[in-house]
Amino acid sequence: MKKQAAVIGAGSWGTALASVLGQNQHTVRLWCRREALAEEINTAHKNEGYLKGIVLPDNIVATTDMKEAAEKASYIVLAVPSGAVRKIARKLMPYLHEDTIVVHAAKGIEPESFLRVSQILKEEWADLSFRGMAVLSGPSHAEEVAEQQPTTVAVSGTSEQVQTLVQELFMNQAFRVYTNDDFLGVELGGALKNIIALGIGLTSGLGYGDNAKAALMTRGLAEITRLGTHLGASPLTFTGLSGLGDLIVTCTSEHSRNWRAGNQIGSGKSLEDVLEQMGMVVEGVRTTEAVYHWSRELGVEMPITEGLYKVLFEHVPPENMAKSLMERGKKNEKEHSIMLLDNN
Ligand SMILES: NC(=O)C1=CN([C@@H]2O[C@H](COP(=O)(O)OP(=O)(O)OC[C@H]3O[C@@H](n4cnc5c(N)ncnc54)[C@H](OP(=O)(O)O)[C@@H]3O)[C@@H](O)[C@H]2O)C=CC1
Ligand SMILES: O=C(CO)COP(=O)(O)O
Which EC numbers characterise this protein's activity in its record (predicted)? Predict the structure, then answer.
């Protein structure tokens, strides 16, 4: 059935998700922060700066007016970088109502608070009542979603009903949505894989090969799972679309801004230059900062995150990261799995 949906953020991901909703014949309002972009979307049905060569469904109406975008929406999809979530949450406050379902699609952790995006939203909207919240996450580069290439994602919601409604809202022949009741795990997987993708890009930039890539992906998944299960997420979620699935796509695709940023830093560019030239968000930088401090506070071992933090924030040369990882003390590969089994 046709729904009223607002997508907040007209970057790569917001535009691609608006496109899916438009294909599903929903009424879509896409909130942009720049008037020129809203005009490009409304007149040419394109967003060339973020999704080159893509023609958008003509039932997407772009606007810079938050009221116009969100007031009548029963679904509000939040697709801005995690660093903009607090500010946008405040702007959205007047337009949430009893029937609103908020779907967030951002992947990050706040460095100052170690909060996930859903926790930031709950904090900002503590006094408001709305129908529920969901997180949509998984292996889904915007460029391929916009081309209607087969894509699968996971959705988790604050209730089973919310989860199913969001699944129905987005699902179509090119965009397959699985439900997963582990909200924490789904949200963490999407945020944490960006750290590992940056690290793998970095080793590629240094000239290391596929063995190093496989090692970092595997041990990266181990440390993501270690933190996630410490916080109460299900280990199985990290083997699913929002865990392993998203890790694979981000670590192996040149679409990935995190991988590309790491690659350029490994090739000798400074972090500042890379971020300035990317023109799009590189969530892994902020998340590395957050998770480095968070894991230390929690006493959870995350050596890849630690190595990357030192390269990004303490000016340690990238080649030292690989060296320090290779020179760590002897370990049993299944150490953490054994602890998990013991706890069950
Ligand atoms: N791209 C992808 O393939 C996927 C991205 N994601 C996640 O989605 C989130 C958004 O990423 P993505 O769309 O790719 O990012 P982009 O860099 O492509 O676009 C960011 C968008 O957010 C807007 N924006 C940035 N800062 C602010 C702010 N302070 N206030 C209001 N609007 C702001 C930008 O506006 P302007 O154009 O005016 O600068 C732009 O529309 C991230 O958390 C990302 O990890 C998740 C899955 C896939
Ligand atoms: O999350 C993504 C794909 O699922 C996008 O990754 P990047 O932000 O690295 O481009």
Answer: 1.1.1.94
